[in-house]
Amino acid sequence: MDKLSVLLVFVPADSGVDGPSLLGEPEHSGFLHSLKDSVLKNVIKRAQFAIPPLSLMILSSIDEPDIEQHICDLRFETFPLDRHWDLIGISVQTGAVRPAFELSAILREKGFRVVLGGPYVTVFPERCRDRGDVLVIGEADEIWRKVLADLRRGRLQKEYRVDELPDLTCGSSVKKDALELRSYFTTNVVQTTRGCPYSCDFCNVHVMNGHKIRHRDIDGVVREVEGFLEKDRRIFFFLDDTVNADDDYAEKLFHELIPFGINWVGQATTRLGENSRLLDVFARSGCGALLVGIESLAEESNRAHNKFHNPADRQAECIRNIRDAGICVYGSFIYGLDEDTLEQTDAIEAFLEETGIDVPGINLLRPIPGTEVFNRLADECRLLHDRNDHDAFRFSWGQEMLYRPKKIPIEAFIPSYTALTKRVFTVRRAIQRAANAPTLRSAVLMFNLFYVHMYNLSRKDLARQMQELGEDKAKGKS
């Protein structure tokens, strides 16, 4: 019997943040359209450090008799409509709901069977039931094998629901067989834990993955890293939401990785700067950069959003300690939290000067459907879109406002934000940050230059939104 063919699809947001959305048939694209897509794909790979979707890598690594699995990443590929597929799985990301549903509709019209899964399906299954033939609700590591087995037997169910979060200690290693390695900045993506012990109301990690930290077996992670190096010796991305959430586990794991001589980046809390032993292990194991969520420099703002684990009065020293260890810091701020005032812009600039943060990210609050802050802002009538119209809440680099700040009128907030980004993201400062970076200087330069361009786009979108708000006000709209 011929093997059954399964295709796993990553759908990018259609707002441009993930790059060109290639949902059409390739023969419909003209030369200029193809050239534009090629340029955009190259920009994404070089400037956004594009990495493969780990969730689809995990699923494609599951072996089931008489079934072969493939991955299609629509950031870089057109959809292979010229092949027969026995099942097509689409990962529905919260910021790409509309294009995912559109693709599903096109494929079903052509006679393909479509299974929908991913974060949005897990949080809002009732909104997805009529959009696909099959739903997978929850972390699919273990239940995907049952889906494949049912496909082989011709007994596919309408819905597969994960009753308990997967035990990561029992998981097998991830394979790269379904990837086109050259499409990515690196294919060395690893996750060692899931779940988050914190309860920040703007984050959906604990909503989807729970509050308890689940660990993979350290020996299994080490074997996976060793296996990855056989095909790709580029930098590693550790995709844990907080790679230092469990200090003891992190110290043991990265101590084991020291002999491999890898370079890696990840996400951590600034609390790392207070643990000199773990910081030393991170540095010796090849850590080149960490993204740290600073959010607001006002303690009362962080507390208003249930963020208690990085006290504002100690953040500057922690960041200096991390950089002194030879690790670059991507410092992520959210301007516009509930207790923020206009004075926060000056505080952010002073903090950047004091700490020497290598890559700053100054974001607007993005209320994600399904999070506590989204529901609260909706109840307080502060969302700028209908709470039931999830497609309206874009997650683009345009960064238009999605809500009304609590203590700053939106008509004053937008100019303060755009003025701040215009001062922070300049070519001169990009070059300075790269020159002062403790390591990875070319990457720091590329990231900063990319942000100079992207925040310029943000200012244009916000200027347009300001004009629309003024017109609405003149017409007497709220």
What does the radius of gyration come to?
A: 23 Å
Largest β sheet strand count, sense and barrel closure: 6 strands, parallel
The quaternary organization reads as single chain
Number of strands: 14
Query: CATH topology of the largest domain, which one?
Result: pyruvate-formate lyase- activating enzyme
What structural class is derived from the secondary structure elements?
Answer: alpha/beta
Q: What ranges have pLDDT less than 50 throughout 5 or more consecutive residues?
A: 17-29
Q: Your description of this structure?
A:
The protein is α/β, with parallel strands linked by helices. The chain has two domains: 4-161, Rossmann fold, CATH 3.40.50; 186-466, pyruvate-formate lyase- activating enzyme, CATH 3.80.30. It has helices spanning 31-47, 54-60, 97-109, 119-123, 143-153, 205-209, 218-228, 247-257, 276-284, 299-304, 312-324, 344-355, 372-379, 410-424, 427-436, 441-474, and strands at residues 4-10, 67-73, 87-91, 114-117, 134-137, 159-161, 188-190, 193-194, 214-215, 236-238, 264-268, 287-295, 328-335, 359-364. Strand 5 (134-137), helix 5 (143-153) and strand 6 form a beta-alpha-beta unit. The longest helix is centred in the C-terminal third of the chain and has 34 residues, at 441-474. The radius of gyration is 23 Å and the shape is globular. The chain starts with a strand and ends with a helix.
